[in-house]
Design a protein that fits this description.
CATH superfamily of chain B: Metal-dependent hydrolases
Number of helices of chain B: 20
Shape of chain A: elongated
Largest interface: A-B, 5 and 9 residues
Helix content of chain A: under 10%
Strand order of the largest sheet of chain A: 5-1-6-8-9-10-11-12-13-14-17-16-15
Strand content of chain B: 15-25%
Distance between the termini of chain B: 47 Å
Oligomer: heterodimer
Helix content of chain B: 25-40%
Mean pLDDT of chain A: 96
Largest sheet of chain A: 13 strands, mixed
Number of domains of chain B: 1
CATH topology of chain B: TIM Barrel
CATH architecture of chain B: Alpha-Beta Barrel
Low-confidence stretches of chain B: none
Largest sheet of chain B: 9 strands, mixed
Structural class of chain B: alpha/beta
Radius of gyration of chain A: 19 Å
Low-confidence stretches of chain A: none
Structural class of chain A: mainly beta
Chain lengths: 271, 555
Amino acid sequence: MSALTFTLKQAPAQRVDCSALTPTALADKSVADIAAIELVMGNSTARVDSLFDITGDDVTDININNSTNKLDFIGHSMASGKITVNGDAGAYVGQFLEAGEITVAGNTDVYTACEMKGGQIKVNGNTGDFVGGARPGYKNGMTGGTVIIAGNSGDRTGDHMRRGMILIEGNAGDYCGTRMVSGTIAVLGQVGAHLGYAMKRGTLLLQQAPANGISANFNDCGSHTLAFLPLMLASFKKLDSKFAEIETFSRVQRYAGDLGGIGMGEILVKI
Amino acid sequence: MITKLTGGRIYDPAHGIDGEIHDIYVRDGRIVDAPVDGKINDEVDLRGKVVMAGAIDMHTHIGGGKINIARTMLPEDHAADVVARTELMRSGCGHAAPSTLTAGYRYAEMGYTAGFEPAILPINARQAHMEMGDTPIIDKGGYAMLGSDDYLLRMMAANNDQEAINNYVAWIINHTQAIGIKVVNPGGINAFKFNQRKLDLDEKNKYYNVSPREILMRLARAVKELGVPHPLHVHGCNLGVPGNLGTTLDTMEGIEGLPMHMTHIQFHSYGTEGDFKFSSGAAEIAESINRNKNITVDVGQILFGQTVTASGDTMRQFAGSPHAHPNKYVCMDIECDAGCGVVPFKYKDQSYVNALQWMIGLETFLMVDDPWRIFLTTDHPNGAPFTSYPHLIKLLMDKSFRNDTLSTLHPEAQKASHLATLDREYTLYDIAIMTRAGAAKLVGLADRGHLGVGGAADITVYTDNPDREKMFSKPDYVFKDGTMVVKDGDLINVTWGTTHVVKPEYDSSVEVELKKYFDRYHTQKMGNFKMSDDEIVDDGRGSLTVQPLHKGGKV
């Protein structure tokens, strides 16, 4: 058995819904069955084998080669297995992901890890806006699992996030951690404006003090030695990420907010 | 072009026909006499089938601002129920708050040919009619909402005479293209803005010093004196409050014999007995309805599952907002004219309160003797979406099914209700009264809800099936104005129904004061507020049907 590999023949002009191409959705399907699946493309449909060259047969290990940012819903509702995307991915990578692993070599579009429940997503490039967020109008974003972003994340990272972890090795955009219900976002680089806007609970962990400062709706609670930090940082050691290499620390400046709401969220800045 | 519908078993309560077999002839959308020369162009064999007029939903929230708020607020309702486009039908979505087109298709597929939006806020009338104009197949119409509008309350505070109020009411009906008047929590929506959080029947609005009882009397008199066939449509005080039973009885008895329609009565029939301080008041309510012949009711049955409650009653919706499921809601003022509250809700069969609400609704259905004065509604979408009507009909027609369902509900609630001892089963004739003849009579539709010569050919044909839910969810044929729109439960034609209105007369001098009022206080000019006939008719598919008035005159 070798990894099931979809190689995009040419970049599609319309967006393609790839939610059917996950280990969970393809379980027990033969290669011929898979080739015949109709994917929604723009306002019509197209057979899988008209879009992709297919090789291999191990549906638990899927590669998507030559991928472009037109391929949406990669790893949608996946409950096990592995997907490796060589190239960029479109919107909604890992939406409703329950378990398993998705790795994207390039960049992803908006709503990466939207309402994800578990498992791991690693993006080696940058992500679009609303990483780990909730769909418009919904109350809860991601509720579990880990997202690792080697590049930068877009705006509104962790919007309505409920649980789980978003680790950003580069910079985070504006409104990082908005409307967060709980969970953890850690950033090694810089963060944009309006950090933690309308945050309810949860933790934003920063390696460097934000260049824009902390907004007035967060209250400075002084410096603290927090025993959980070394434990959490130790848990990163097993990850394929710069977070595995950071020197452990426990001393942080703590800011609580958003005071416009219940104010139980925290921004922790390493000192 | 004459179509003959041959040999169906006819249930036409408007003409006292209870299951007789005879033929129906249809020409140009109307039911006609048998042609003298015996020539027909087309024949549909209905032998062995049950034939009724098209059903009429006299209280269903299918248009206007509230439902749009529900649609906007509940993407989950839409994501979970997506309907793809077909050659014939356009795409849509939504379970509790379906899109306009989907609502029309679904109604038609169930054999419904008319639906009436019960809460058209006058200032929102254009929006409501545009939405209903986008609802295919069924006829529609609406009741204009008064009673918490500042203009009426100012008139009452100034003690204007009944004549002036009649003129205002008639003016509103004409220029909102309505067929009746609805009052929601009389004066209460207004009182909410002055920080009152409850308003009993005889409690005064703090600012205007006017009580709900006075508002009801004034409006019920206006409707009667103007000769509007649909009685004042009342959503009473204290909706959903345990112990509101007393207020409801007082409202019905206190109207002094004027015609009045009490809507979603189930939500107004609660006592405070028992360990849970929540009990059924259905017996007292039903007894009062049976005694007061001026009163009609619709039930507003709840059925279990996820839905959304949408009401103009800001006061009560605000009180209910902590129970929102999912946890979000909207309560808002609308142009200082009234308000609205939209609270998503999940009725659970293992909740004592919800289970008892279900029983109270059914008790009311079974204990009100006269099917001409009680109507089958779930107050769509407040108690359940309208798509659950076939299920509700089965509950009414099948005692053992009802009792089987009952036995699975919250055990304490079962003990608190005597529903299990009620043996009544609705007949097909009763159902035809409630959903056809009675509803048409109540709304004031002269040419609908019956199968007599001259009536509109809105006809629904069912296969008699002991499983009434199956029977009523998939009619064999539905004819709308003579066109076959449904065949074997599937839509085959999309037509556009008419909008039913009444046009009571008023003295045009009423506009002198109104114009000043609009100029001084409103966000739009009076000329823009008035909705012209053309706005409904001009798109080429909408039409207006002016229904005849009753004889009015001073009460």
